[in-house]
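I hope you will forgive my troubling you with a question about protein structure. I set the record out below, with my sincere thanks for your time.
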Amino acid sequence: MEYLAVKDLKRSRDLWDKLKNQHELVVTKDGTPCALLVGITPETLEESISEIRKALFSVAVANMRKKVSSNPPDESEIQALVGKSRSQRKNK
């Protein structure tokens, strides 16, 4: 996978050539990855967006599971959140 600085996005001809050849480009800002460009076609737009969203959701869930497993909430915290949620639903 090739990296591309934000400032290089202005050179559109180079960008499209690289994207056509690589299919994916990591955009960096100050050397830190900040975005991913993925080549698609009009026919695959909806499916590509759906699959990217699923993948991002899976990563978010995995990260939350890691966070919770290293610092699990105690029973009183869980009960407090459940009680708060139930009272909010009753008030609607």
User: Anything to note?
Assistant: The first strand starts at residue 2 and ends at 5. Residues 12 and 18 are 10 Å apart (CA to CA).
